[in-house]
Predict the structure.
Amino acid sequence: MKFYITTPIYYVNSEPHIGSAYTTIIADIIARYKRLMGYEVFFLTGTDEHGQKVYQAAQQAGKEPKEFCDELAEKFKSLWKELEITNDHFVRTTDDYHVRTVQIFVEKMIENGDVYKGVYKGWYCIPCETYWNEDEVIRDGSSVLCPECKRPVKWLEEENYFFRLSKYRDALLKHYEEHPDFVEPDFRKNEMLKILEGGLKDLSITRTTFKWGVPLPRDPSHVIYVWVDALINYVSAIGYGWDEETFKKWWPANVHLIGKEINRFHSIVWPAMLMSVGLPLPEKVFAHGWLTVNGQKISKSLGNAIDPRYFVNKYGNDVVRYYLVREISFGKDGDFSEEKLVGRLNSDLANDYGNLLHRATAMVQKYFNGSLPRPSEGEGIDNWLKERYFQTKDEYLKLMDSYKLTEALEKLWLFIADVNKYFNDTQPWVLAKENKMDRLGTVLYNTLETILKVAIMTSPVMPDTSEKVFGRLSFDAKPSLEHLEEWGVLKPGSAVKHGEPLFQKVEVQNLKKVVETVIVEENTITIDEFSKVDLRVAKVVEAERIPNSRKLIRLVVDLGSEKRQIVAGIAEHYTPEELVGKNIIVVANLKPAKLMGYESRGMLLAAKHGETLRLLTVDGDIAPGAKIS
Ligand code: MSP
């Protein structure tokens, strides 16, 4: 039995954050679960490195795009290592085998008559790398915004190759009908059905106005559209076009795990591309919700990115993983809250789970010399516990199999509450006092056997904790479904080790602002970074309006050692006469720029509030050129 699971490949325009880690962690949990169930698993993740967005980020960093991608790809890889992600491969779209497969794939689409040349006229959102029609963009005054990320879009007019996406509408609808679970959750599928029912437009699949992409072999002045390039990773990484045997083994994927904002690409564009080249479609696309902070999607460009390492270092991997699955209802959006994380740690993990193990192992140590007692014939309450276990196990497996991860943990913790009830109701401390050692041994055995079951079932979510529990219970087999199916896996007489509690409780006070603090820290700069900006006092010696411009004024400023021309958009707020003689503040080391044909060597500083704009000046007289620090 094989299981092939993928995450989206992440753009390398910025470092990974807890949002990207969320998808990867969930995929890791599913991959580990499937391995536990006996599947041979291929778990793929990677980086999406072509396209305008990444190219611009490289330029801003002053690096060659490949060098920039190499650095960022390493950052993703090392974070996944720290988070103990068990991916089997890491695909990069700049990898040679991927580039060749993209070319083979697209050439095949062309050979099959699904591609034609045309002119694209429309909008393009660089942050989303997405084309938008006139009726899709948002107009806000004079700005035209992306309906997805609400950032400005650019107008494009290019000769492109187009994919006949429209041709596949009926076949896609049929596929959705015949495979009702193709896209999950249901409400996400319905969004896709609405798009399909509204009809599909052909998709521009090449670009000519920039070069950072995979060239189209038959017409290399075109590079392949970054989304087409990226989607093909799901087949390039497993050998399509270069290792047919491996490819046959793994394709079709069992699940593409993605965030909801890229569902259309995965549930409409990608299946149509696969139909075009004659490949079977993936079994399922699962589109989960977003992690938010104060209701906003976490993302670098919104300035609210949180580094998962902060929480992992503070609480440990397992706690973060447990929190993400248990608290953020899988499939829906959920707000990231450190307070809630600590709440789960203290109650679910420390109290309900860790403390139960702690109490049971303490008693085995004290009354049985650390050797697991042999259970005797059970009583009613023992049978109840076993029944509750088997019922929970069945529910848990069913929920995990249908990707209802949050509910699976909910069910498991209801069971843990029942194990605690069993432990309390059987009153082992009274049994000890009354010297009913046989009965005490049975209760402790049953308690520890259920804890073993819990540790096996939670091992995909909390692998390190489960390892610890296995160690305490001297369970050294490779955990598997068989161990869940039978009762009495623990061997009487084996060593039971009592040790530190599994989880340490944390005080809840002073946590409220922590998420904000992390974000603020991410947005802070060092004194060294600040000192790169050369701020100077400058005296305005000349000023005139630039002809035919409503906003621009040309200034000549005295910087002590030199005079400079600066062009500033302040004509609606100051007359040239008002400016002459003022001591203003300028950024002296800004790269020169040309505005309406006039060179500007520096930038003046001004404060803006609504419609009001006021220049920054100094408090009293000081020599022109004085440095500001
Ligand atoms: N490169 C494309 C995907 C190509 S797949 C063929 C892309 N990359 S991305 O870097 O923007 O990552 C998108 C994915 O990261 C989302 O689909 C989602 O899985 C994950 N997330 C990014 N921010 C997230 C949240 N705030 N919350 C949850 N998941 C988030 O799109």
User: Anything to note?
Assistant: The first strand starts at residue 2 and ends at 11. The chain is about 45% helix and 20% strand. The chain has three domains: 2-314, 337-508, 532-615.
